[in-house]
Amino acid sequence: MNNKEKEIFEAGKYKCPIPIPNIKKGDVLFCKSPTSIWLCIVSHIEGDKVYYHANYNITAKLLNLDDWFLVDYINRKATSEEKIFMLKELEKNKLCWIESQKIIFQTDKLLIVPDTINIFQLGYNDKQLGIGTQNDSVILLSSEKTYGLYHFQSEIFEKVDCVLIPCNYKDLQPKDIAFRTKNNPNTITPDIQNPMDYVKIMEQGYVYICGESLLKAYDTEFFWFKVVKG
Q1: Which residues contact 89 (CB under 8 A, 6 or more apart)?
Q2: CA 23 to chain centre
Q3: pTM value > 0.70
Q4: What region, left, alpha or beta, does residue 97 occupy, with left being phi > 0 and alpha being psi -120 to 50 degrees?
Q5: Is 84 helix (H, G, I), strand (E, B) or coil?
């Protein structure tokens, strides 16, 4: 076997003969090439290319973002331990993976919803997030066209930690919780303590808690953040 044939043979050993089924956005994969091994968080697969959000080359100890490699080098889905390892490598680089949104975000730009703002998750299938009043007695939920306050029940609602992800108002969907501010977050750190700045998005406008009342508004001339489970 000459050197060229050996090179082709060695590369062929690392190619995945059967594609891994059911790979989806956010999956972590363990991959091999003739010269290295790596973990990646999948964005999508298009043709013979795997596009990724993040790729940590274990051999070279190098983190790359938003690129691609050939699908042939997928070896398997990552183990639980490998997923934790991948997330820790992101943390070392001041990055975090927001699972609910399937995005990578810079931790130094991440705003955490303070404990004084009560966000609850509904325990039913839709896992909707709701905004609690200051004493947690009632929780604001909404649909596309309706909204209301629901009495807190511990077997139905669970308080959750959340973060704020910058977005455009047009990107928000009915049932989302959003934070609004008039202050440009690129120049002034927004005041995230005011409960009235946390709103439930509807098909038309949004609604928020004001004291013991619910108010509906339509003004979108704000800087917007989506509230997501952290």
Answers
A1: 56, 63
A2: 18
A3: no
A4: beta
A5: helix
Q: Please, which residues have CB within 8 angstroms of residue 106's CB and are 6 or more apart in sequence?
A: 94, 95
SS3 content of the chain, % helix, strand, coil (to 5): 15, 45, 40
Domains of the chain, each with CATH number or no CATH: 3-92 (2.30.30), 111-229 (no CATH)
Residue 9: its pLDDT value, please? 37
Checking if the pLDDT of 2 tops 60, the result is no
Are 91 and 107 in contact by the 8 Å Cβ rule? The answer is yes
**127: pLDDT strictly greater than 90:** no
- A 10 A CB-CB count for 1 gives 8
The beta-carbon contacts of 54-60 under 8 Å, at least 24 apart in sequence, are 54/86, 54/90, 54/95, 54/97, 54/104, 56/86, 56/89, 59/35, 60/36
Q: How many residues does the chain have?
A: 230
The predicted structure's pLDDT at residue 109: 77
Structure-token pair, residue 48? 């013979």
Given pLDDT bands bounded at 50, 70 and 90, which one contains residue 187?
confident
Task: Flag the least confident range among 15-29, 50-64, 95-109, 125-139.
Answer: 15-29
- C-alpha closest to that of 31 among 86, 74, 63: 74
Q: SS3 for 4?
A: helix
- Count CB neighbours of 216 within 10 A: 13
